[in-house]
Design goal:
7 helices, 236 residues, alpha+beta
C-alpha cells in the first residue's frame, strides 16, 4: 500500500470530484479527507491501455493476459475499454508518438496565484473531421452531470486551444461497483455550465485550498526516525 501524495497541481478529475460550488467548508473537508489515505493502486495502466484498447485490436476476453499482474479494479477497467473498442473501434493516436502535435499527456491550467490544475489526456482520434480527445473517469463512484461537465470543460480549456481549437472532448466513464461498462459521454451531450457557474467552482476551490494549506501547515511535523536502535527501548 502506498500513501496518496498531495499535489500542488491536482488533477482536473479530482477538482471536479471534491468541489462543492459555493460551499468552501465542504470542499475543504473533502480535500482533507484523503490526506492519510493509502491507495493500493493507480490508474496509470488504465490510461496507458486506452489508445490501443479503443482501436479494438485487443479482445476483451484476453485483455488480462496482455495487461497481467494489475489490480482487479484496473483489470476490469481495461477490459471495459477493450469491449468499447470491440463495439466501436476508433483510430487513436498517442500524443507521445506525435510530438509535432504540440500536445502532451499533462497540461496545466492556471486558476490563480500558485493554483494550477493538471489535465491528463493521452490520445486523440478524428470523427467527422473533428479531433476528439478522450478523458477517463475510472473511479468507482459516479459523478453528477455538473461535475462531469466541469471535468470536460477543463479538458477543453487545456487541450482545445490554438491549432486544436476545433477539437472536442469526450468522457469515457468507467464508474460502477459490481461490473464495469465503458460509457462514452460527449461534451455536447452534457448540460453546459455558464461562465458564472465555472467562476463559482474556481473561487470555491481556491478559497478551500487556502484553508487546506493553513490546516496542513499547522499540523505537527512527524518526529524523525532515529538513525540507530534505541538501546534503552524508551517509549515514544
Amino acid at each position: 500500500m502506498t500513501k496518496q501524495a498531495r499535489s500542488n497541481a491536482p488533477l482536473a478529475l479530482s477538482v471536479a470530484t471534491v468541489t462543492a460550488p459555493g460551499n468552501v467548508r465542504l470542499t475543504a473537508d473533502r480535500m482533507l479527507e484523503f490526506d492519510d489515505a493509502k491507495i493500493g493502486f493507480t490508474h496509470a495502466k488504465t490510461w496507458g491501455a486506452m489508445p490501443v484498447a479503443r482501436r479494438g485490436v485487443i479482445k476483451s476476453c484476453s485483455s488480462h493476459l496482455v495487461y497481467s499482474g494489475t489490480h482487479p479494479r484496473v483489470e476490469a477497467c481495461i477490459r471495459a475499454l477493450c469491449e468499447l473498442g470491440e463495439r466501436n473501434p476508433v483510430e487513436t493516436k498517442r500524443f507521445e508518438d506525435f510530438p509535432q502535435s504540440g500536445l502532451t499527456t499533462n497540461r496545466k491550467i492556471e486558476w490563480g496565484p500558485e493554483i494550477l490544475i493538471s489535465v491528463k489526456a493521452v490520445c486523440w482520434y478524428i470523427k467527422a473531421g473533428t479531433p476528439i480527445i478522450p478523458l477517463l473517469q475510472p473511479r468507482k463512484q459516479s459523478l453528477p452531470e455538473e461535475a462531469l461537465t466541469l471535468y470536460s470543460t477543463l479538458g477543453r480549456q487545456a487541450y482545445c486551444t490554438g491549432d486544436w481549437v476545433i477539437g472536442q472532448t469526450e468522457i469515457v466513464d468507467l464508474s460502477g461497483e459490481d461490473g464495469v461498462y465503458a460509457t462514452v459521454i460527449n461534451h455536447s451531450d452534457l448540460k453546459q455550465l455558464s461562465d458564472a457557474r465555472v467562476h463559482e467552482y474556481v473561487t470555491t476551490y481556491i478559497d478551500a485550498k487556502k484553508i487546506v494549506d493553513r490546516v496542513r501547515s499547522e499540523r505537527p511535523k512527524p518526529r524523525p526516525k532515529p538513525t540507530t536502535d534505541d538501546l534503552f527501548d524508551r517509549p515514544e
